[in-house]
């Protein structure tokens, strides 16, 4: 008879903390044990192998009896409560008892070791940067340099690196062996990893070249290299990452302690690539003209304890200045003096040549340090040149990293390795993040990735449409393998055109100005995808019985309502301004400056050029404002169907706003001409008044111009399909 406990349901949401390392094992074990006892599953842990599945039974549903099911329930509870590192230890285990004993052997350290309390003085000295006190303690207890001095298993070197005390770090390293540099804390991190994680780039360089390379090599269950590489990527220490990937290319797909490969980490760094940054026109112009030399891209040298170089009898002193993280080196060649003499040396300090040379050097130094240097710094900060330089350097280094990693991927022949190494996940994440360079490089290296599918059976083409990445869409659309990709379906029977009808949370709609432009962009995507799929796909239904067009209409109802409201609000505001200008300009035509000649009826200033400018600009302002009012009225009375958002409404808005800006400009010209005619002898008064009155008009144009620009570019030069 089957007992009640044997059929106890198990919730996947285990109410226990994740097991990460030995520090929280004791608490984890107590809570998991209590949970298993409450489900009557603890006996399956105690009874050694009683309920373990035999080989070949794992996939045989008929062979899974009640005891085996209970074993799997207990095993599932343990697995669900494990962190990535702990789960990797029991990934292939089929017995709950074996899984429990494996984790206990690795993480249960028995009684808590409180020996670190003996090094409290050393901890305080290192943390506060008191080098003298730290040296005194280490002189009395030399072995303390490699002992854990905190409850987290951190050594003095870990603390010094975290606090950023360069001098103490150098002193500790001098007292340690190379093997000591590989000591891990409770989280499995070395001092080098801490330096990278906390952004201590100089300390990271210093420690990196003193750490044995064999400690970073890819090895079974040794994740040091992958841990260092992923942390270097996320902290943007790409120089270290490049050097490490050049040394050990296989680290590309090795998982770190968080279950993440460096390749997957790189795919998460959208802003590390040019496609992940949107620059204004002038910043894009500056960016394109910045040159990154080869040495700045690929050299990685240790900066600490860097002695002066001696080259060909000359000593090179290096003056280093820091600006926004960039290093600018100014070299000063100082001649060596041998026996008090040197060829071409001026020995008479009191002579005129010596004074002239000294004066020239002083003037040059003053000009460079106090005039030229600050001026360059001000201009650089104002234009953002230094930030753009650093950005471009990161972009180039990221592409170089990507290139090195992609060369390693074709060496993986098995699909299982590609999956476990995070390669498939990395490409999916790159598509989701819109990293064009990442997708382009991986596809060119191995076109089979085009057929790769995510967990929802969606290929790259479908993901590019779903997340609205035009450049990736164009890349795949121009590939020879695009035709088979257009007919694929996901798990819900959605095809490529269905993807265009969905509105995903990650869809980049907020880049458009106004909801109406968002709706226009969505329609452009749907039309573009509709033009490349087979005609029969247009009428295919998904599991909800919806065709792509029906799905589009359903998902965009709210957007259409908001777009209609946005259009009407904008048109209403601009109509008021346009009608006001029409009224003013019509009245101005009959109230000309200076009045008319009482005998002939002609304007008194008829023969003046400024008067002709006044009349012409008045007529243009009246004409353009009338057109703008008519266009805005057309928008207000539109039927607001889906197709109207594609061309009709945007064109009316572009024409209306363009003419409104023209009417404002010509109105200001009319006002200026009239003022100059009447105050032609009082220019010091007229010119400031003209400038002052023009401020409100300029503010209005500045506020509305981005809408016109975005609407014009989206309507006449859409980015999709280009």
From TrEMBL:
InterPro entries membership: Ankyrin_rpt, Ankyrin_rpt-contain_sf, PGG_dom
PANTHER family reported for this sequence: ANKYRIN REPEAT PROTEIN, CASKIN
TM stretches of this protein: 346-367, 570-590, 610-636, 657-679, 685-703
UniProt keyword terms in alphabetical order: ANK repeat, Membrane, Transmembrane, Transmembrane helix
Protein name as it appears in the record: PGG domain-containing protein
Pfam families given in the database record: Ank_2, PGG
Record carries keyword Zinc: no
Residue stretches of each ANK repeat: 152-175
Entry-linked Gene3D superfamilies: Ankyrin repeat-containing domain
Residue ranges occupied by any PGG domain in the UniProt entry: 564-677
């Amino acid at each position: 008879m089957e007992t009640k406990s044997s059929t106890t349901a198990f919730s996947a949401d285990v109410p226990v903390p994740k097991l990460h390392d030995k520090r929280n094992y004791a608490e984890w074990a107590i809570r998991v044990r209590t949970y298993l006892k409450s489900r009557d599953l603890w006996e399956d842990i105690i009874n050694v192998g009683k309920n373990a599945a035999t080989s070949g039974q794992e996939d045989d549903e008929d062979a899974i009896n009640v005891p085996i099911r209970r074993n799997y329930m207990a095993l599932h509870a343990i697995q669900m409560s494990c962190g990535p590192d702990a789960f990797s230890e029991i990934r292939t285990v089929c017995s709950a008892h074996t899984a429990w004993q494996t984790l206990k052997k690795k993480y249960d350290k028995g009684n808590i070791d409180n020996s670190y309390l003996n090094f409290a003085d050393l901890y305080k000295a290192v943390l506060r940067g008191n080098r003298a006190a730290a040296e005194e303690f280490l002189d009395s207890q030399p072995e303390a340099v490699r002992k854990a001095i905190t409850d987290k298993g951190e050594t003095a070197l870990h603390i010094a690196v975290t606090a950023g005390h360069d001098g103490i770090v150098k002193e500790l390293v001098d007292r340690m062996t190379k093997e000591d540099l590989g000591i891990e804390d409770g989280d499995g991190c070395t001092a080098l990893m801490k330096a990278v994680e906390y952004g201590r780039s100089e300390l990271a360089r210093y420690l990196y070249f003193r750490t044995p390379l064999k400690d970073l090599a890819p090895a079974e269950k040794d994740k040091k290299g992958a841990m260092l590489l992923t942390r270097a990527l996320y902290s943007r220490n790409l120089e270290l990452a490049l050097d490490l990937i050049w040394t050990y290319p296989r680290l590309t797909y090795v998982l770190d302690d968080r279950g993440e490969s460096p390749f997957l980490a790189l795919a998460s760094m959208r802003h590390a690539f040019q496609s992940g940054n949107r620059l204004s026109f002038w910043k894009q112009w500056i960016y394109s003209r910045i040159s990154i030399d080869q040495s700045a891209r690929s050299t990685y040298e240790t900066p600490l304890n860097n002695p002066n170089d001696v080259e060909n009898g000359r000593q090179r002193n290096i003056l280093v200045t820091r600006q926004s993280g960039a290093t600018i080196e100014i070299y000063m060649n100082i001649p060596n003096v041998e026996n008090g003499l040197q060829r071409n040396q001026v020995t008479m300090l009191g002579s005129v040549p010596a004074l002239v040379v000294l004066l020239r050097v002083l003037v040059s130094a003053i000009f460079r340090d106090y005039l030229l240097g600050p001026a360059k710094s001000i201009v650089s900060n104002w234009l953002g040149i230094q930030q753009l330089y650093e950005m471009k350097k990161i972009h180039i280094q990221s592409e170089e990293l990507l290139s090195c990693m992609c060369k390693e991927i074709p060496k993986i022949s098995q699909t299982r390795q590609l999956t476990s190494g995070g390669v498939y996940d990395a490409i999916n994440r790159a598509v989701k993040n819109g990293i064009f360079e990442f997708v382009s490089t991986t596809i060119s290296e191995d076109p089979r990735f085009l057929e790769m599918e995510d967990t929802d059976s969606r290929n790259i083409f479908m993901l590019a449409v779903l997340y609205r990445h035009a450049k990736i869409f164009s890349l795949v659309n121009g590939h020879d393998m695009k035709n088979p990709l257009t007919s694929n379906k996901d798990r819900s029977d959605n095809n490529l055109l269905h993807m265009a009808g969905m509105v995903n949370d990650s869809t980049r709609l907020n880049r458009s100005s106004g909801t109406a432009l968002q709706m226009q962009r969505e329609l452009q995507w749907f039309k573009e995808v509709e033009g490349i799929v087979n005609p029969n796909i247009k009428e295919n239904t998904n599991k909800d019985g919806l065709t792509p067009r029906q799905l589009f209409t359903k998902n965009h109802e709210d957007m259409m309502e908001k777009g209609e409201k946005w259009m009407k609000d904008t048109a209403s505001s601009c109509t008021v301004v346009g009608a006001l200008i029409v009224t003013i300009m019509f009245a101005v035509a009959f109230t000309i400056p200076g009045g008319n000649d009482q005998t002939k009826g002609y304007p008194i200033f008829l023969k003046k050029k400024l008067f002709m400018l006044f009349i012409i600009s008045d007529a243009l302002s009246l004409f353009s404002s009338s057109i703008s009012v008519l266009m805005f009225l057309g928008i207000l009375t539109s039927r607001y169907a889906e197709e109207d958002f594609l061309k009709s409404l945007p064109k009316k808005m572009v024409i209306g706003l363009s003419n409104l800006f023209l009417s404002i400009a010509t109105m200001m010209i009319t006002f200026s001409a009239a003022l100059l005619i009447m105050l032609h002898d009082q220019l010091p008064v007229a010119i400031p008044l003209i400038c002052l009155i023009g401020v409100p008009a300029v503010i209005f144009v500045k506020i509305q111009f981005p809408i016109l620009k975005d609407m014009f570019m989206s309507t006449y030069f859409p980015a999709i399909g280009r």
